[in-house]
Write a structure and sequence with these properties.
By secondary structure, this protein is an all-alpha fold. It is 70% helix and 0% strand. It contains 9 helices and no strands. The two termini are 36 Å apart.
């Protein structure tokens, strides 16, 4: 599915008109219409804004990923085995972790502070998302697969 189709599908699922979505995003109705007909492609910033607004990944919006969410339960409900869902979820976490590590030390500290603040606005305790726990989960998964 292409971006133009996903965008329209998501907009309609939220029962929004093009005008209402445009107002929410601070753009014109004609720009939303152009995205939905495929006449225009959104900039990186707009793609990020759309993904954030609809709470989906940019990969989902652009058709690179078929699932709205990358959470474990969603993957299992779409037919992935528990091991496949765990591996897919963990690989996504590693991907974002690798991007974070590519930042300079100073920029990484800034990004971590921003992420902690965003998590706090959603009521998530960032201390509960400890690196060691994620690494331990991944290690257990790898050992379990090696034992097969």
């Amino acid at each position: 599915m292409e971006l133009k189709d996903r965008l329209k599908e998501l907009r309609l699922h939220k029962s929004l008109s093009q005008v209402a979505l445009a107002e929410q995003l601070g753009v014109s109705k004609s720009l939303i219409g152009a995205y939905e007909t495929g006449d225009r492609k959104p900039s990186y910033e707009m793609l990020t804004k759309l993904a954030d607004y609809f709470r989906v990944s940019a990969d989902y919006l652009t058709g690179l990923d078929q699932f709205e969410a990358d959470d474990f339960a969603d993957l299992v409900s779409h037919g992935y085995s528990i091991d496949e869902a765990s591996l897919r979820t963990r690989s996504r976490e590693l991907y974002y972790g690798k991007k974070m590590m590519a930042l300079s030390y100073d920029n990484r500290e800034i990004a971590e502070t921003l992420i902690d603040k965003l998590l706090a606005t959603q009521g998530v305790d960032s201390e509960a998302l400890r690196y060691e726990d994620i690494l331990a989960d991944l290690t257990r998964l790898t050992e379990a697969q090696d034992g097969d």
